[in-house]
Design a protein that fits this description.
Layout (H helix, E strand, L loop, with lengths): L11 H7 L6 H9 L30 E4 L2 E4 H15 L3 H9 L2 H13 L20 E5 L5 H12 L7 E6 L2 H14 L4 E5 L13 E7 L8 H11 E12 L5 H22 L3 H13 L3 H10 L3 E8 L4 E7 L7
Parallel strand pairs: 3-4, 3-6, 4-5, 6-7
Antiparallel strand pairs: 1-2, 7-9, 8-9
Helix pairs in contact: 5-6, 9-10
Length: 331
């Protein structure tokens, strides 16, 4: 991983994250500091294992998915997820800082470095790989725009005069509104906001996007495989898919601490700050059920992505996954 940078904030979230070490040593500290957390849309995994609901008959299996530890049909999960993010939208960014003690900032900065690295664009035929004017980046389940704002801020720090076309896609109106308010406060007009279902991307043409990025959002999909096929569809040949998501802690001691923090601290923090413990119970359970890095990489391969790779941070708390759409494809 390359350098990390943490963008300071004022107030409580700044004080919580100030003790962290910035830049290169940050990764090492991340491992020692904290296997707790969550970011983006999620929290940290290890919750209950049992369910009182009767499992569906085998022939109906494809209709049902988990919402936390409950088995529900896919359409109901989509509605329940929408309710979760409507409930937490106003305190979403604050809760990310509190739950992760600011570590989500480090993870996202590494993720952004990957998104705008030359590797993301070299396979797409164009004249000048350093010219972002004809580049389109799709920030799926982008919510309040945290990743997109970081991309813009990073390019400004690098004195870029031409910016890519950045589109935030989210299915939740409240989350988009929070992002648009944030954009107005920053005076930033470089981001396009679109309400659309990330699993379908009905408003995005096929073979039109250079990079599809999703941060802490794909585990909330009712049909992850369908979402990956959609990402493959909208990418240009040679385009890159990048995903930042929670994974599985690979140290037994750290895993025990992480699970304790996740199952007890995070839901109660959600109740204290947001007044909604149930939504954060779901987010914790969604992380516990999400595949490890190897398992998710296999889903990318099954969706026809090539050059698939995954790299973990903080003892495996999170992972960055990457894959490319082949430059020559019949899709």
């Amino acid at each position: 991983m390359n350098r990390l940078s943490i963008i300071p904030k004022s107030g409580l979230s700044y004080r919580l994250s100030r003790s962290l070490v910035w830049r290169a040593p940050c990764l090492a500290r991340l491992g020692l500091l904290s296997p707790h957390i969550r970011s983006g849309l999620g929290l940290t995994g290890a919750a209950r294992h049992s369910s009182t609901k009767k499992h569906p008959e085998p022939e109906d299996e494809d209709k049902y998915v988990y919402f936390g530890d409950r088995r529900v049909d896919r359409e109901l999960k989509r509605k329940l997820i929408d309710n979760v993010f409507t409930s937490v939208s106003s305190k979403y960014d604050l809760m990310n800082d509190l739950m992760s003690l600011g570590l989500h900032r480090c993870w996202k900065d590494v993720f952004v470095d990957n998104i705008i690295s030359p590797e993301s664009f070299l396979r797409i035929k164009r004249g000048d790989s350093d010219n972002f004017s004809d580049v389109t980046i799709l920030d799926v389940a982008g919510g309040t725009g945290d990743i997109s704002f970081r991309i813009v801020d990073k390019l400004r720090r690098d004195n870029m005069e031409v910016f890519p076309r950045i589109m935030v896609i989210d299915s939740n109106s409240e989350m988009i509104q929070q992002g648009q308010l944030r954009s107005l406060k920053k005076g930033d007009s470089n981001i396009i906001w679109i309400k659309d279902d990330g699993e379908k991307l009905e408003q995005i043409p096929s073979n039109s996007v250079d990079v599809v990025a999703i941060s802490f959002g794909i585990r909330n999909f009712a049909d992850i495989e369908k979402g990956l096929r959609t990402f493959y569809r909208v990418l240009k040949p040679g385009g890159r898919f990048l995903c930042l998501e929670f994974s599985k802690v690979n140290n037994p001691l750290i895993s025990s601490i992480y699970q304790l923090y996740s199952s007890i601290v995070i839901p109660n923090l959600g109740e204290l700050v947001v007044g909604d413990k149930e939504s954060y119970d779901y987010l914790v359970e969604s992380i516990r059920r999400f595949p490890d890095a190897e398992g998710f990489a296999q889903l990318l391969i099954d969706a026809n992505f090539t050059e698939v790779k995954s790299s973990t941070m903080t003892f495996g708390v999170v992972a960055i996954h990457s894959g490319f759409k082949p430059t020559e494809t019949s899709d």
